[in-house]
Structures are given as structure tokens and as C-alpha cells.
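Researcher: Please translate sequence to C-alpha cells.
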Amino acid sequence: MVYGTLNNDGQSVVVDEKEGKRYDSIIFINEGGCMVFSSSDRFYYLARKGKDVYLVEESTTNSI
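Model: Translation complete:
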């Protein structure tokens, strides 16, 4: 299972109950972005930290 979280420290993506790196914000559909699954175990999303935007690649088979 993959989903995004939000708390006072920012946002992150959780994969199989393991929380990933925290960003100021994850760019989701309401902001013009989304998580894109390129295979059954690999996905990408956009994240903001400060003034920078990152293309983040994650895998559901490895630890984040």
C-alpha cells in the first residue's frame, strides 16, 4: 500500500507502513501532480523542499 501523509513537520509517502523522507510538500493531484507507477514495484512523484522541486523515485520492494 502506498499513500501520502501530512503532519506538522511536512509531508511524506508511506510504502508498506514505512514512512519515507519528509518534504515541505508532496505535489499531489490537487496541485497538478500525482504518483505515477511505472511498474508494479516502482513509482515516481514530485516533492518540494524550500524553493527546490524534486522528482522522487521509490520502490515498493526496497526500504525507503
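Researcher: Any highlights?
Model: The CA atoms of residues 45 and 56 lie 5 Å apart.
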